[in-house]
């Protein structure tokens, strides 16, 4: 295979050196084995080792290399480099404070995630073996448990941009529904109480940016609708 | 204390349902209104007044305005909640919005019962 060159336009910001962020034009020659955008970034780092980004698993399971790719949030490791319109414009996830280059501070995101108590609450004594579910009940959790907390969704959600401190955001709400839907969980009422709030849940205006970007193909809007449905069923 | 984020007002569902219910009513009313207006014998002030002289129609129309203003209240409040950060300013905007919408409702009643 002939050598391929990729042009990049990358958001750069090192708070220790730069007064303000700037866009760096840079290109890199790929090896035949470089298939994904992440491969290209790793290759690029051999050329300019000051470039900073997070990555770990390089196969879409750790959720650390989420970034804004040509205007749309996604995982670098799941994005094919061939076919990406050039120059490939890379920016950090929108709406979160930038630590350096493509690395953002996810504190707010995880704070919201933790606020929905993302763990099973069950006060019965633990059985000798695991707590069992029927296959049908287990089925309910599909499309919910697969979330890798990459934050692509929440950082593409305008409601989360405006109120990241108060609106739980699509990722947190998807996780909230994952436990509301779990038949082994005993805190359903508390969970619904916790979300029945004009900010925490009802800031979602069904804009559906979250569904559009989720690299795992999950549907937070649907989960949010289900939470509302549970609330209605409880109230009327 | 001032810097703590406080959430958990425990309302939201009712407003959300009300927003949908009022939207449905407005859609239904629009159909009724269109049907009534189109079946008028002629487009004259007399025919128009006769339509609104009907008690049921008056009632449905007033209900429409109430639905509209309540729908607007939730929508406008959403805008304040999304974009206005200072709490004092937000409160002031909420109050102004309520006063205006209640005023409009009274005004609508006045107009309807004068027709
Ligand atoms: S729902 Fe999808 S986009 Fe959002 S954090 Fe989970 S995996 Fe990422
Ligand atoms: S559907 Fe709701 S959570 Fe998803 S992007 Fe839109 S406002 Fe945000
Ligand atoms: S590196 Fe783990 S998801 Fe991309």
TrEMBL record, chain A:
<dbReference type="Pfam" id="PF13534">
    <property type="entry name" value="Fer4_17"/>
</dbReference>
<comment type="pathway">
    <text>Carbohydrate metabolism; tricarboxylic acid cycle; fumarate from succinate (bacterial route): step 1/1.</text>
</comment>
<keyword id="KW-0001">2Fe-2S</keyword>
<dbReference type="InterPro" id="IPR012675">
    <property type="entry name" value="Beta-grasp_dom_sf"/>
</dbReference>
<keyword id="KW-0813">Transport</keyword>
<feature type="domain" description="4Fe-4S ferredoxin-type">
    <location>
        <begin position="137"/>
        <end position="167"/>
    </location>
</feature>
<dbReference type="GO" id="GO:0009055">
    <property type="term" value="F:electron transfer activity"/>
</dbReference>
<protein>
    <recommendedName>
        <fullName>Succinate dehydrogenase iron-sulfur subunit</fullName>
        <ecNumber>1.3.5.1</ecNumber>
    </recommendedName>
</protein>
<dbReference type="InterPro" id="IPR017900">
    <property type="entry name" value="4Fe4S_Fe_S_CS"/>
</dbReference>
<dbReference type="GO" id="GO:0051538">
    <property type="term" value="F:3 iron, 4 sulfur cluster binding"/>
</dbReference>
<keyword id="KW-0560">Oxidoreductase</keyword>
<dbReference type="InterPro" id="IPR036010">
    <property type="entry name" value="2Fe-2S_ferredoxin-like_sf"/>
</dbReference>
<feature type="domain" description="2Fe-2S ferredoxin-type">
    <location>
        <begin position="6"/>
        <end position="96"/>
    </location>
</feature>
<dbReference type="GO" id="GO:0051537">
    <property type="term" value="F:2 iron, 2 sulfur cluster binding"/>
</dbReference>
<dbReference type="InterPro" id="IPR050573">
    <property type="entry name" value="SDH/FRD_Iron-Sulfur"/>
</dbReference>
<keyword id="KW-0816">Tricarboxylic acid cycle</keyword>
<keyword id="KW-0003">3Fe-4S</keyword>
<dbReference type="Pfam" id="PF13085">
    <property type="entry name" value="Fer2_3"/>
</dbReference>
<dbReference type="InterPro" id="IPR025192">
    <property type="entry name" value="Succ_DH/fum_Rdtase_N"/>
</dbReference>
<keyword id="KW-0249">Electron transport</keyword>
<dbReference type="InterPro" id="IPR017896">
    <property type="entry name" value="4Fe4S_Fe-S-bd"/>
</dbReference>
<dbReference type="InterPro" id="IPR004489">
    <property type="entry name" value="Succ_DH/fum_Rdtase_Fe-S"/>
</dbReference>
UniProtKB/TrEMBL annotation, chain B:
<keyword id="KW-0816">Tricarboxylic acid cycle</keyword>
<keyword id="KW-0472">Membrane</keyword>
<feature type="transmembrane region" description="Helical">
    <location>
        <begin position="47"/>
        <end position="70"/>
    </location>
</feature>
<comment type="function">
    <text>Membrane-anchoring subunit of succinate dehydrogenase (SDH).</text>
</comment>
<keyword id="KW-0249">Electron transport</keyword>
<feature type="transmembrane region" description="Helical">
    <location>
        <begin position="91"/>
        <end position="113"/>
    </location>
</feature>
<feature type="transmembrane region" description="Helical">
    <location>
        <begin position="21"/>
        <end position="41"/>
    </location>
</feature>
<feature type="binding site" description="axial binding residue">
    <location>
        <position position="71"/>
    </location>
    <ligand>
        <name>heme</name>
    </ligand>
</feature>
<keyword id="KW-0349">Heme</keyword>
<keyword id="KW-1003">Cell membrane</keyword>
<comment type="pathway">
    <text>Carbohydrate metabolism; tricarboxylic acid cycle.</text>
</comment>
<protein>
    <recommendedName>
        <fullName>Succinate dehydrogenase hydrophobic membrane anchor subunit</fullName>
    </recommendedName>
</protein>
<keyword id="KW-0997">Cell inner membrane</keyword>
<keyword id="KW-0408">Iron</keyword>
<dbReference type="InterPro" id="IPR000701">
    <property type="entry name" value="SuccDH_FuR_B_TM-su"/>
</dbReference>
<dbReference type="GO" id="GO:0009055">
    <property type="term" value="F:electron transfer activity"/>
</dbReference>
<dbReference type="GO" id="GO:0046872">
    <property type="term" value="F:metal ion binding"/>
</dbReference>
<dbReference type="GO" id="GO:0017004">
    <property type="term" value="P:cytochrome complex assembly"/>
</dbReference>
<dbReference type="InterPro" id="IPR034804">
    <property type="entry name" value="SQR/QFR_C/D"/>
</dbReference>
<dbReference type="GO" id="GO:0020037">
    <property type="term" value="F:heme binding"/>
</dbReference>
<dbReference type="GO" id="GO:0006099">
    <property type="term" value="P:tricarboxylic acid cycle"/>
</dbReference>
<keyword id="KW-1133">Transmembrane helix</keyword>
